[in-house]
Amino acid sequence: MKNISTNKMKDKELKELHFDVQGWKSDLQYTEDDLLFMDKLLHSNAFRETTHNLFERLEDYKTKLKHVSLEKRAVQESIAQYEHQLGSMMGRTLSEYDPKYLTKHQALRKKIMDYTSGFKALKTELFNYAGGILR
Hints:
The protein is an all-alpha fold.
């Protein structure tokens, strides 16, 4: 009886981890839409040409945007690898369950939070700048 309840607990934990992964993937998809919009904005001619250092500032934002896009891809790859590992654990017994996996989960959560925080900071900075110099 104890083995059954222990396995149910393990399944619950793994399902919760899987639920987190699905949320992370969804959140990153939303950032993809924002990145596309920001890229179009930076490549548009919606800005007043008389703005001091306009070209330099826009080029700087384009560079930052490329960096954030590359970072997003790296985070997505990390999530895909983690999700694959999580899937391979579903058929194991509890004794084979690696308790360090929760540590991996927390590390990936932090990586995603750091990415999201940096992305939001760039988005806010760009929108604040662009909002003041639109035609």
